[in-house]
Specification:
binds 3-methyl-2-oxobutanoic acid; TIM Barrel; binds sodium ion; alpha/beta
Length: 265
């Protein structure tokens, strides 16, 4: 088994040591990311976009996730392995448990991540009750792009912010072990952190989280089109992949990343 566990992440939060997370989808990059000292590797359903060339994460299947998880798991010696439940693989307790079983038993995942809001807290509870370590992903939930009509910052007015805080509390109460927030103003993310007790990892959610995550292709500057505002091209700064990964780890650990220009106000 690998070195970083849920206990490590909890201790890092208690000691206010920033948690460094990054996505990976294959064996070669998993090795590099692990060697650079990343604490949590996510096999994200963002693989639908960066590996498969889809416009969203919606087409990604559970079989795709299992395949990429197996590839990544073989490359890790140290990092904790978090894996996404893809769109509509967790529509009820039974489906979620069967999906999680495949990711953990066939794939080698340490933890599953579910995009959820307060109304889906029962699914988080079912997973947790069955012994599955769970990360609840809220704020912007990219699997909902069809309903949202696009990707934008969430919780922008007070009612929206309150909804995000309600989600946070419901998901924590349901047993989520880690919380992950995407595309929130720094102030709203800070309120989530104040009102909850689990390690809080952010992407596009400002500096006031317990950890940071980026999509590997974004931080290497190879995502097609306009890069997201909240990312930074570490490869452009350093010229070598291994050095770029190390620079990202160092920047998060020393709170040099994210800066104000990566943050929504
Ligand atoms: O799929 C993914 O890469 C993610 C991160 C953006 C958190 O869910
Ligand atoms: Na995802």
């Amino acid at each position: 088994s690998r070195t970083v566990t849920l206990a490590t992440l909890r201790r890092m939060k208690a000691e206010q040591a920033p948690i460094v997370a990054l996505t990976a989808y294959d064996y070669s990059f998993a090795r590099q990311v692990d060697a650079a000292g990343v604490d949590v590797v996510l096999v994200g359903d963002s693989l639908g976009m960066v590996m498969q060339g889809h416009a969203s994460t919606v087409p990604v299947t559970l079989a795709d996730m299992v395949y990429h998880t197996r590839c990544v798991a073989r490359g890790l010696e140290r990092a904790y392995l978090m894996v996404d439940l893809p769109f509509l693989s967790d529509t009820d307790d039974r489906a979620a448990l069967e999906s999680a079983a495949r990711l953990m038993k066939e794939g080698g995942a340490d933890m599953v991540k579910v995009e959820a809001h307060a109304a889906q807290a029962p699914v988080v509870e079912a997973l947790s009750r069955a012994g599955v370590p769970v990360c609840a992903h809220f704020g912007l939930r990219p699997q909902r792009v069809g309903q949202l009509g696009g990707y934008r910052v969430q919780g922008r007015d007070e009612a929206g912010a309150q909804q995000v805080l309600d989600d946070a509390q419901a998901l924590e109460a349901a047993g989520a072990d880690v919380l992950l927030v995407e595309c929130l103003s720094a102030a709203v993310a800070a309120r989530v952190r104040e009102q909850t007790h689990r390690p809080l990892i952010g992407i596009g959610a400002g500096a006031d989280c317990d950890g940071q995550i980026l999509v590997l292709q974004d931080m290497l500057g190879i995502t097609p089109g306009q890069p997201p505002r909240f990312s930074h091209d570490f490869l452009a700064d350093t010229g070598r992949i291994q050095t770029a990964l190390e620079a990202y780890v160092e920047a998060v650990r020393t709170r040099q990343f994210p800066q104000l220009q990566h943050t929504f106000e």
